[in-house]
Write a structure and sequence with these properties.
Number of domains: 1
Radius of gyration: 21 Å
Oligomer: single chain
Shape: globular
Length: about 280
């Protein structure tokens, strides 16, 4: 119950500071605006009104960039901010353990992100229903669910970094650096690894399964894979010819495993660091 008490207090603080209201407005504008925009520029295959599935796949990339930024912004002050202000000692003087603080902050800030996502996606659903005569609620709910998981992963990363540092500035720099590497520079990092492993040259043959596994490791890539595993095939793309990878860790459903790892592992490491630090 201590974990839930910390989460409840965190959520109430977000309401009082109007963070929840601001994020809700942002998601409403983002999802509704993006849905309308893509409906105008991305007609259905063969012409006519776009299907809801076409619009959902169009939203995957922008959502995969906005949600991580907001998740880290919500998470990086979670524990480090309490330590800087001195409130952490008051918090731990109550019947809360350090584990309660880490988990409670994660749950509270996830709630702050989930509400705007659901409200924004509900408004977006109305826009998509208006734009498309072929709206499938199940596919849209799947998209919202996977997006929430991506947000939870980045909140967990942000809270973990915040738990491992004593400064909100360091937590912010660490979060931004990790986001840039994982979501913007990961392909370049992998090419550099291949270049080094192959003796300072690029291989003539395609890399092995290990390379494609590393490609799928960033949360954004896992998010796309997880969404593809539950949604029908993207109607705007042609089916890929060739063999489907045999390795289980290269299947789209394994994106859920990777997202779960991004939630659990950083939190565990951040908690262990927080637990072993003198306040």
């Amino acid at each position: 119950m201590s974990t839930l008490a910390v989460a409840r207090k965190d959520f109430q603080d977000a309401i009082r500071s109007r963070v929840l209201l601001g994020l809700t407005g942002l998601f409403v504008l983002f999802v509704a605006g993006a849905s309308y925009f893509f409906a105008r520029i991305q007609p259905a295959p063969g012409g006519g009104d776009p299907t809801a599935l076409v619009l959902i796949f169009s939203l995957l990339t922008p959502a995969g960039l906005l949600v991580p930024i907001i998740g880290l912004a919500l998470g990086y002050k979670a524990v480090a901010g309490e330590r800087e202000s001195g409130r952490i000692k008051l918090l731990l003087s109550l019947p809360h353990s350090r584990l309660d603080v880490v988990l409670g902050k994660t749950l509270g800030r996830t709630s702050v992100l989930v509400v705007p996502i659901l409200v924004g996606f509900a408004v977006g659903a109305a826009v998509i229903f208006w734009q498309s005569s072929r709206f499938t609620p199940v596919n849209y709910l799947v998209f919202a669910f996977v997006t929430v998981l991506l947000g939870l992963a980045y909140i967990a990363i942000g809270v973990a970094i915040s738990s491992a540092t004593t400064s909100t500035f360091r937590a912010l720099i660490g979060g931004i650096s990790l986001l840039v590497v994982l979501e913007f520079l990961w392909q370049q990092v992998l090419l550099a690894v291949v270049y080094l492993v192959n003796g300072l040259s690029l291989p003539q043959q395609p890399p092995g399964d290990w390379y494609y596994f590393l490609q799928s490791l960033p949360p954004g890539s896992a998010y796309s894979s997880a969404a593809r595993s539950l949604l029908p095939q993207n109607p705007t793309t042609l089916a890929v010819t060739g063999q489907t990878p045999d390795a289980f860790y290269l299947q789209d459903w394994f994106g859920f495993v990777i997202l779960a790892a991004w939630i659990v592992v950083p939190l565990a490491l951040g908690y262990l660091r927080f637990e072993g630090t003198d306040l």
